[in-house]
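Possible regression after last week's pipeline update?

I re-ran a chain I had predicted before the update to compare outputs. Posting the input and the new output here so someone can diff against the archived version. Not blocking, just want to make sure nothing changed silently.
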Amino acid sequence: MSSSSVEREEGAAFLPKFDAAGLVTCVTTDAVSGDVLMVAHMNAEALRKTVATGEAWYFSRSRNALWRKGESSGQTQRVVEMRTDCDQDAVWLRVEQTGAACHTGRHSCFYRKVERADDQGGARLVFVDAERLFDPNAVYRK
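New output (post-update):
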């Protein structure tokens, strides 16, 4: 193991390992229930702002833009704890979620369960915990 690997995996310095696009994956969970709320990406600026403000900031790959969770919808995330994995290429946020985490208006982005559909390995999606907490068409008017 190289000295930089040892430092990244065993040291106390926060040394995020960004991918080729300059991003790290972020898994966000509810600090109370433990529910997985969403998976998103962060660039260096999003990480800095999250640490500095205690609010969740992300980087949108589709919009190629930095965004603070809740800036449009009011559905904010206050960071209770931030962790990184062993090689620092992923981040885990434990948050206090105000309202819904998902842009579809649901508490979590993980509102469909994958089930086996047939004996050939086919799959289908079944809605679970899919109640909408807000109408996305009313919140995200364009």
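Follow-up from reviewer: compared with the archived run. Residues 44-53 form the longest helix (10 residues). Marking as no regression found.
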